[in-house]
Every structure is written in C-alpha cells, then in structure tokens.
Design a protein that fits this description.
Blueprint: H1 5-12, H2 22-40, H3 47-62, E1 72-77, E2 80-88, H4 90-116, H5 123-139, H6 146-164, H7 171-202, H8 207-213, H9 222-239, H10 249-255, H11 258-283, H12 288-312, H13 321-342, H14 349-378, H15 392-395, H16 397-411, H17 417-432, H18 436-459, H19 475-493, H20 496-501
Antiparallel strand pairs: 1-2
Helix pairs in contact: 2-3, 2-5, 3-4, 3-5, 4-5, 4-11, 4-14, 4-19, 5-6, 5-11, 6-7, 6-11, 7-9, 7-10, 8-11, 9-11, 10-11, 10-13, 11-13, 11-14, 12-13, 12-18, 13-14, 13-17, 13-18, 14-16, 14-17, 14-19, 16-17, 16-18, 17-18, 17-19
Amino acid sequence: MSSLAQPLAESVVQSVDWLAIAPPTITAVVGLVVLVADLFLQDAKKALLGWVSVAGLAASALMLLPLLDGDRATFCLTGDATACSYTADRFTLVIQFLVLGGALLAALLSITTLKDADKGLPEGEYWFLLLSSAAGAALLPASRDLATLIVALEVASLPAFALVGIRHGDKKSAEAALKFFLSSVTATAVSLMGVSFVYATTGTLYLTEIADRIQHVDGQFHTLAQTGVVLTLIGFAFKTAAVPFHFWVPDTYVGAPLPIAAYLSVVGKAVGFSGLILVTVVAFPSYADVWGPALAALAALTMTVGNLGALRQQATRAYSAVRLLAWSSVGQAGYLLVPIAAAAYSKDAQKSIGSTVAYALMYAAVNLGAFAVAALVGRSRALNRVSDYRGLYASNPLAALLLAFFLLCLAGLPPGVIGLFAKVTVFSAAVDAGLGWLAVVMAVNVVIALFYYLQWTALLFRAPEGEHGKHRVPAPLTAALALTGALGIALSGAPQLVLRFADTGLF
C-alpha cells in the first residue's frame, strides 16, 4: 500500500463497538429472523413468532446492563472523540430501556390480539414491522448527528404506518394509516429542510459541532440558522403529538390494532421527546431564546387542547375508551414538554431534562397498563366504549382495581403516588425556571383532567347494566397487567427511584 493510500484507509475504516450498538442491532436482527421464519412455518405454529419477538426484545433490554459501566461511543470522526454518530451514555440507556420495555409490553398484548383476531392478521409481517420500528426507536436516543436522527426517526415511523393499517379490508384502519402517513411525511419534509438550513450555516451535522459553530454564524446567515432550528423541531413535535401536530392521534389510535395504539402512545412519544431533547439542549443551546418560548407555548397549548378534547368526548354515551386515552395522551404530552421548555431558562438544564424523562417513565408504565385493561375488556366488548366499563369491579375486581390505580396515577392522585410525584417534579421545573404562567396553566389542566379520569374510575364500581362475561385471561395479557401493575405500585412506594434512574447525565 502506498504512503498516500495508507492514511486514507485509516481515516475511512473504523472499528465498531458492537456492545454499544447491541440493543437496536439485536432487535433488528430478530425482526429479520422472524420475517424469514414466517416463510417456512405452518399456520398452526406461527404463534411461535410472537414469543421469539418477545424473547428478542427481552434480550435487547438485557444488553443494556453491560453498558452501565460507562459512556461508550462509536462511528466517530477520526481524531475527534467528541463528534460521534452513536453514543451510549446514561440518557441513551434510560430512553432505550423505556422504548424496549414499552415494545415488550406491546408485544405481549399483540400475542393475545393476533390470536383473537377474527380477520387473520399477517403474523410474520406484523412482528417484523413491530421489531423494525422498535429498532429505529432504540437507535434514535443514541444518535448524535442530524442525519442519523432523521434516519432513526423514519425507521421508527415507516413500519408504524403499515402496522396502523395492517387490518386487511378495514376502512377505518386504512383511513387512519393514510392520515398518519401523510401528516408524518409532511412533518419530516419540513424537518429535512430545517436540517439543510442548519448544515448550510454550520457545515456539519454532528450535534456537538453544531452547538459550537452555530454560535459564530455570520450575521447575514443568522435568520437562516434560526429558521433551520425551528423547522428541525417540527418533525419531532409531530411525533410527540404536540398541538397543532396532534390531529392524527385520535383517529389513528382508534383505527389501529389496540397494541399498536398502546405502542404509539408510549414508544412514539419517547422517540419524539428524545429527539427534541437532543436537538434543543445538545445541538442548539445557544438558540434557547428561539426554541424556549416556542416549546413553552406548545406545552400550554398541547395540554389544554388535549384535556379539553378528552372532556368533550363525554358529550356522547358511546365514546370510545381508546379515543379518550388518545386525547389523554395529547394532554400528557403537554406536561412532558414543560421541563424541556424550562431547560431554556433554567440554570440547571440537567435537572429539567431529568424531570421530563422521569415523567415519561411514569407515563409509560401506567398508560400501557390502562391499554392492557382496555385489551382485556375489548375481548368481550368489541366497541370498547367507556360505558362498557360500568360495573367491571363486579365481574373482574383485579382488573377494575388496576385500571382505577392507573387512572389515578395519570390524574396525579393518591394512591397513584408516582403520578403525583411526577407532576410535582414537572411543576417545580417550571417554577424554578421562572415560568410561573406555565405552572399555572398546568395546574388548571390537572384540575380539568381530574374530571374525566375520576368519572371513568367511578364508573368501574357502579352497578353493572349488563353482563361483562367472565373469560380466562390469556397468559401474555396477564403478564402485561402484572408487569405494569407491579411497576406502578413499586414506584408509588419509592418514587425517588424514578428520579435517580432518570438522572441522564446528558451534559
């Protein structure tokens, strides 16, 4: 090799830290294995694909343990260890735990749903799409350049479109998938334009380098840089279901298979919020005067529209439990945005980001639990209306008590101590940052949300109007209920564990 070619080869060829990239890689590989195995398995044995998928997600989550020793990075620029495309730090591991844990619980719900489906859902394709989306979602929090962030966002999103519309011949499902697809593609196109503006003004895509160079942009390019910052945020704001990018949520949740609605409500939000955090506090900290007020306004608007939308659902007796959870998730997204906005004004941005992550962990556990109970009720009541939950305690006391606990957690009332703790943490983040007006808006919205959460809770213990029917609860559904219930109860007993776990060490 010539003396000229040798340095060139050394600059191009990189060693890969396989341990660092193991969680998303294992998930993606298991997805390919499931897709190929589907070609050879007989229909009677295709239930095995679900258990293989669950095992793959569990293995991916376990691979987070060896990474706790210290930060690891790979795919770095030669000679610059701070400019890397993939970083497995504390923030990455916490979000990957949330994503893989949420996908695992959605997979447990899916096993029962696929078994009960009247219209045969294509199992091989279903599991491949779910694992592919989970792999993209696990990749995103580790991404430290804008190109990888956008690619991870799309890898998480594109399979989700197909999963929403996977019911063959179901018009509601197809309409939901189309609405989800068109609105998401538009938001991504806007974000890509923003990324191009940022690249044009800084000459780099690495987040740490952008943070340094964007402070020194020439005056004539300042407006272009500001526009790029705002446009880049739009795609991630869409994934979080922030208003006015929320309109796809109610129809998509109702039209999708219930486990996919649960998956989108937790994993989809984790993708959006982790992307927002990386873009704002890592890449654009010097533009906090641009994204701080924008996110504060979005937070106030999102929680208000979400809670009023959920309240409006009660105008009709036949409103869907899933639609109510969809509007509730929009309102919860507003609370999640508050600490990110507060990071722009706070002297301790690390604490603010930790508040968002802590709230997201609480929300993931209890919201997936509520969807698990909805899946149980939906087995005997196909329409899954809120009125169908009347008297649930008489036929299934444990499920009713669990749902009541999950709803009280979402409302922030005892005995759902973890919900109250998370809301107080978010509230204090706003106050500490000097956003008193946002704290007041949040307090008003918490009171509004109490009405529909408590009304649904009270309905569980009223005299039943009809028979719910007692059915044997399948093992996967039992496992999902047990895991979410145990996690919620344990964290309510020791809520400080969430804050310790959510100490992301991002800075």
